[in-house]
Amino acid sequence: MQIKSNNIQHYYATISELVENPYISPSLASRIVAYRTFHEQKISWNSIADKFELDSIRIARIALYLK
Question: At CA 6, angle to CA 63 and CA 15, rounded to 5?
């Protein structure tokens, strides 16, 4: 199943919603949700990418699916 571009809000998405993105593994989704929950504030996609040391190609691919 292909999801539409810009369909996932990383601020509020659950683990299962994040893994709909073909470039986000269940492990990464879990870490994103835990990181976001721990900080209890809106976290920018750039800070998530920096925190988990994602390479620029993966960042660009994931970003296609984010709002």
Answer: 75
